[in-house]
Structures are given as structure tokens and as C-alpha cells.
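Working notes for the structural subgroup meeting. M.R. asked for a predicted model of this chain before we commit to crystallization trials. I am recording the input and output together here so anyone reviewing the notebook later can reproduce the run.

Input as submitted:
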Amino acid sequence: MYTPAITGTGVFTPDEVITNAELVEAFNAYADRMNAANAAPIAAGEMEPMQHSSDAFIVKASGIERRHVMNKSGILDPEVMHPLLRQRSDDEPGIMAEMALDAANKALEQAGRSPEDIDLVICAASNMERAYPAIAIEIQSLLGIKGFAFDMNVACSSATFGIQAAADMIRSGSVRAALVVNPEICSGHLEWRDRDCHFIFGDVATATVIERIEDAKGPHFEILSTRCATQFSNNIRNNNGFLRRSRPDGMKDRRDMQFMQNGRKVFKEVVPMVSHHIADHMTAEGLEGAALKRMWLHQANKTMNDLIGKKVLGREPAPEEQPNILQEYANTSSAGSIIAFSQNSDDLAEGDLGLICSFGAGYSVGSVLLRRHL
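Returned structure, recorded in C-alpha cell form:
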């Protein structure tokens, strides 16, 4: 059995940014258009008018101040309200592969590795732009990596589940080094016309190099253990899929074809689930939560993370103990915890313990317990 370690990470951040102010202006213009178009049923009490959104509402609900996206013009157009991404030919790299390529090269550079050193590519993300061929295999081809590759989807937990899969294969000896990539175009599945969620998501791609610890060329994080769990819930759902056209109203503009959630139930049920998961993981390793120098949590909601941190540590976490990148990136699904890790881990000392944890639809939760080595 071999010991796996994280030796490099990379983050691709889109150039285009949407501030809360810009988003609110576009949403409120859309709401005014809808209310004007439905003035009669609204006046008759048959329909509720759309409420305006506000910067204060968004920050209070989530802690988000801005988000990076692959295209903002369509999102901010009240007549469109979704990203506009050009159709690519089958001979061109797909947009998810292109995003992943940038993050992957950064991760490889940090690890001191070349594509020839990698045996496995896992593309772990909440949505894939096509059913097949696998995005992971396209990324593998673009990088010139041998070995094998596959896609996996566990929604917002995809990154930690992907790390566990790669770490297990390294432990067993079936691969020597792996690359886990998380390209997330969350703007594509968000319903920008829904006041309750129009501010939640942003776009990004992350990548993580995992290899045998004895092969590490510089500072790295030993993967002490990983733990994953799932529990079925309909409280976060997206009903889009390849069978859509086979159903009577499948191609209609239906609300359930985009991201949907019952936010209050998610908050109430996920916080204790994740808190217990982390506590059980630590106990299984003979440790207490207080032993953690840092937690890199899924970046969905600041209040949710603050509560989880308090339950795990037994006190209010200091900002440096639980880094928050929500205000800059918004929720980036599986990539959020990896952004937090990539941007807030270099300062840890030899032997310090940290934990990456992601959670989301499914429900699903994955945690990776790490020890720093210099």
C-alpha cells in the first residue's frame, strides 16, 4: 500500500465579473417587464407580482458580493437571462476541457510534473456539457496524458469524491499519479430569473495533482484518510437530461430544467449532516475537531459554513481557520473547497492538520484529512 499526497493545485478564473449591483439591475429590469406583461392577472389577484432583488438581500442571504462567469452579456440582458456561449465544432476543444486545461497546467507546474507523469484523469463536476465522449478523455488528449480517464458527477461533492477515487487507486498501486479536474460552468444551469437563487453561482475550474508521497518534489499534503457519504434528497434537484424530449412537455421552458432547491430545508438538514460527518471522520482517526488548523469547506453559504465550523471546533472559527472565498467567486459547486484550499494553504507549518470538505445535492458529503509536509 502506498501513501497518496496532494502535490499541486490550480485555479482557472474567468475574466468576466458580475457584481451584485449589476446583477440586481438586470434582474429588477426583468421583473418589471414580467409585471407589466402580466398587469391584468396581477391586478385581479390571480398572480403575485415579481419582487425586486437587492445587493443587501444577496449579501445577507449568502455572503456573496460578485462572481466570475464565462459570459456576462447574456446573463445581464433582461430579454435573455442566461450565458451566451458560441457553438463549437466537434473538432474544437470543448469549453469545459479548455477551462480545465488552464487549471491543470497550473497544478502540474506547482507539483513539478509534466503530463507524461500522470496515469489518470478524473473530470469531477456537477454538470457535463455532453454525455459522451467523456470530458476527462478530451482533457487527457489535450494534455497528452497516457493511461485512462473518466467523468464523475456527485454534484457539489464531486471534487472530494474524485480525490478519494484517485487516492484509493494510488494506495492500491494501480496508478502512480492522478489529476482531478473540476470545470464548473454553473452559470449554465442557474435560473437567473428566480429571485431566491439568481445570485448563487459563478464559473471556475480547479485541478489537483495527487501522487505517491515519496514522489513529491516539494511541499505537499499527505492524505491521511478520506470519507464519503450520500443520502437521497429531492431538496436540491435539476430535472434536465437526455430523456427530456421523450416526454409530452419535455421541451417547454420549465422551471425544473434548471437548478432548484428548497433552501430552508437544505440548510436545516445539511448542517448537522456535514458536522456529524466531519466529527465521525476525525474520531475514526483518533482526533478531535480542535486538532484542525484549517478547514476548507464547500463555498455555498457563509452562515452555513460558520455553523459547521462552530460545531466541529466547539467555538467560533477564526477567519484564517476557515477561509471564505464566497464573496469573490460565489458558489462554484465542486470547485469551491478546492479554491479555498489552493489559495489558503501555503502558510501552514510542518505537521499541521487540515480538512477539505464539500457537500451538496444528493445529499452528498466528502471529506479529505490532510497533514502538511515541507
